Amino acid sequence: MEYVLKNGIVYDPANKVAGEKKDVMFKDGKIVDSVSADAKVLDVTDKIVMPAGIDPHAHVAGPKLVVGRIYRPEDSRKGVTHKTDVTRSESGFSIPSCPSTGYRYSRMGYGTVVEAAVPPLEAKHTHEEINSIPNLDIVPLSLFGNNWFVLQYAKQNQIEDLAAFVAAWLKIAKCYGVKIVNPCGSEAWGWGMNVHGLDDPAPYWDVTGREVVTALAKANEMLGMPHSVHVHPNDLGHPGNYPTTVSTMDALKDIEKNSTVRGQTMHLTHAQFHAYGGTSWRDADSGADHIADYVNKNDHITIDVGQVTLDETTTMTADAPMEFDLYKLSGLKWANKDVELETAAGIVPVIYSGKAPVNSLQWAIGLELFLKVNDPWKVCLTTDHPNAGPFIRYPRIISWLMSNERRQEMMDNREVHPWSHRRTSLASLEREYDFNEIATITRAGPAKIYGFQDRGALTPGYNADIAVFDINPNDIDPSRNPEAIEKGFSTAMYTIKDGEILVKDGDIVKVVKSQTLWTNVKGMEEQEKAVMERVMPDFTRYYTVKFENYQVHDKYLPNPIVTEVQAGK
Amino acid sequence: MANYEPPVTDYDSIVENCTCAFCGCNCDDLDYLIKDGHVVGVRHACRLGASKIMEDMDQRLMVPMIRGEDGELAETDWDTALDKAAELIAGAIRPIFYGWSETSIETMHHGLELGELVGAVLDNQATICHGPSLQAVQNAGYPISTLGEVKNRADMCLYTGSNAMNSHPRHMARYSTFPRGYFRPRGRFDRTVVTLDPKYSDTAKMSDIWVGFEQNGDYEFYNAIRAVLKGKKLQKEFISGIPKEDVEELAEAMKNVQFGALFFGLGLTHTLSKQRNIDIAIQMVADLNSYTKWILMPMRGHFNVNGFNIFMAFETGFPYGVDFARGYQRYMNGETNTIDLLTRKECDVFMVIAADPGAHYPGGAIKHLAEIPVIQVDIHWGPSTEIADVVLPGSFVGVEVGGTSYRMDGVPIWMKKAIDKPESCRDDEWIIKELLERVKKIKAEQGALASK
Q1: Is residue B348 part of a domain?
Q2: Model ipTM?
Q3: Structural domain of residue B343, as residue ranges?
Q4: Is there a contact between B140 and A97 if contact means CB atoms under 8 Å apart?
Q5: Residues in a beta bridge with A66
Q6: Which of A490, B134, B162, B412 is least buried, going by the fewest C-beta atoms within 10 A?
């Protein structure tokens, strides 16, 4: 089937198309240069056309999501909708059910979402949930930062063995890349402790976060992975944590990049939670300057923000000690889920309120990061869904980024607490994003960061993943019309995935199965075999499942998209 | 040694690393000894698991049956039985699909689709066992871990309201008390085992400390421990029949371990204060985490009872008792649960899959079941068969057919197939899918008629 999207205003930053009126054509699921006269014409005159959105960091599938849903029926009750001829019924606000997750992303013009934390032991669970999320391609990242085997390799600085281990484990868990969460801290949580800073060793293992992050980054480059290490540094959410964040970034400064498809050697995730100054919540202030400054001066770093949206939400992270701290602060019900030999996880509901000084500070710091990082290719739009807010608020964040007037208004009329301008420089930042920059932070940038070669741009041969929004960029002043911007980006006029129209005028018109991206490393088979033989005795002794039942069988990935990389190349 | 049975030596082949389809331990290290297409021996399993697996043909439902006018079940062919069941489901106003805890996630997928299609209530055994635990989790939180954390780290294991030695016989051996873990290299000798139970149970006999508080004394006892943890002086000399000095001593001991794990069973969920018992146990564990590391875990009974709750949560947002009658999901304890619907006589067609309500339900609920059409999908005869109007014989997950299950701690396990099922039986997944197809067909015909 051939289609032409006619007369749209196209924003395709990867191809340096910034608001040109032109046609976009696709055929059999791929973007093409030209189509025959029989092509079906979709008239999108003066509407915004972009590649479909790519969310570089969210939590949408897996064991901790399900703990959230089981223990927060009050959240599930919020978003209930009736089933339609096309869609199943929906539920949930901050932790929507799997079908709802797919529909809602799809309605916003998104096509690809990264599930950022998969414990390999429970990877089957994550994959089962991915299969229940429609209309999206999901990119799972596997947790390595507190894995006992990784801790040992890092301590002994055995990078080649570690690389082989990572390659083997990605095959076992069927994941796309390497995620590190609070390195050594989640292991310390096994004893109810945490580590403080990058150089505080994990109890017993005597290895520091610095050693783990560095070793994994080296191993990641040795393998030539499509994505860099994806790092959630130590001390998340603690006042005065920005020096830890900066030193984590700096620790990886000299690691040589071994990839042509991406620019960075480290992706710092939900930077907002890692950009606090001060010593306690009494005197906390913004450390965004330090983070943004470092990112501006160094090319080995990219970040996503984790913007607070001022909603009631459900926080969940493998940084379990932080979640316990949060529980002690708020007293709201605390869930925890530690995973043997691999990681921990914590879950606590949070009510972010514009009336609360701390939440307003967080809100402002997130926006500061967006506005202070000069190169939009280095920063991505996320809320660390659902941690700082649900993903359905992305359009609202876009409206804030495009309108200084709206930001000032929120501070002036006390929609946010005065801490938002007293303790940050947000009030002095006049920068406003344009549509091309929005397309960069939601599409082209994330695609580049993940080394995608088939999406995130309207390049001929790429997947026909396209979003059309009912906004005429030549006829709207985003600065004055934040509501129209939010509405426009909330309900796509068309969401097209692999050449199929899934959303029309904000309604789901078609439901397709999700696909799962994972990375298959080739060329280290011998080393992998040797490593497997060495870890197997410990595996058998300390895990509670047999190796045969630990692996994710192909059955769990009915629609895989495999990225094959040649180790060392 | 009257009960001594010599080891099985007469077998054709061994299938290793099979997963036990009995309790929530989901032991996945079983070896099945196969002869002539049957499991004749099981290595590593406990008595409960081994007997279920080996005696799979005992009272086995082999052919589909329909209850005739005479009130007797009569054998029939698959087509007739499935058509009859589909007709009942398609014509139902308030159907309930109950059970699911002893079948695979793959089967549940089709069941949910069918439920959404006809507006059924989907519910599982949690509604009569760990439902109070789930309510408490929703009240107070859910601090758990996987069982390997307990094996590798725990120096105190506390069983309360649970006689694991009888109900989950390998739980202590494989996960909590006896195994040698990374930080507990001497296994049992590195751990303190505590049982809180009015009964001097077999688990209590294995323990270092047994606290036999009064029946229904759970809430008061945990409350007292919490008070001690918060530095309060106990006013009463005896707490639930236990001297206050002992309570203080236990609280102190719990505070001073490195890693504690509390396992609770139906003894906690079904005594006087029900979910409030769990509430306070969860809060106690949360309190203890200010001093050291503690987790807790419900001792789930069936091998996939947790699986259904997980599956329903990620598909619909709610763990059990999910009602689709209005075209969207509703979950309200006391309203959308099976027992309530049955005792209110709301339900008009009941499908039970891989469960035995006939054996477990209160009288009032069974009374209503006897009055309405009941469809049974199961592998064995049971009291439910006696009230069933259509019987569809399934196959044995983890033995005759593969499937995904979730252990009590949420670890997903692929339970592989080891032998072929009896020729006249069908897989649960196939049966439910077939029902779905047939109901869809009936609905389409009805729709076509209505539009004429």
Answers
A1: yes
A2: 0.97
A3: 65-126+303-397+424-451
A4: no
A5: none
A6: A490
